[in-house]
Amino acid sequence: MASFLSPEWLADLTTTLNAHAGFKAAIANVDLTLQFVVSDAPVDKESRYYFDIADGSVLAAPGDAAEPDVTITNNYETAMALSKGETNTQMAFMTGKIKVTGNMAKLMMNQAMLTQFAAAAAGMKVDY
After folding, report:
1. 69 in a domain, yes or no?
2. Of 5, 32, 46, 112, whose CA is between 20 and 30 Å from 62?
3. Residue ranges of the chain whose pLDDT lies below 50
């Protein structure tokens, strides 16, 4: 079981998302790069990682994307709550727990992908 925000978690997440039929269908024609910043991540965790979605697949990787379409910033507590399914992205955004910068229109056009992401990730075993 991978530790949340570790390189192993990102690798497991990539595998899980690419194996989920609903997520794969939702990203079939999507070209989107999401940068994530966890403002107060513990020292042993990845504080910056990204999802590169293109050609019907996704890569979750540590570090910074070369040219992200959207950057999503939140604290560690919110990142964990989102990962555990204890809160959803829309509620976190509306209550100011996540900040989103960049191409909001492109992100909003891909709501089905976000819904399927939550469904796919819900089955992962993660050590928090």
Report:
1. yes
2. 112
3. none
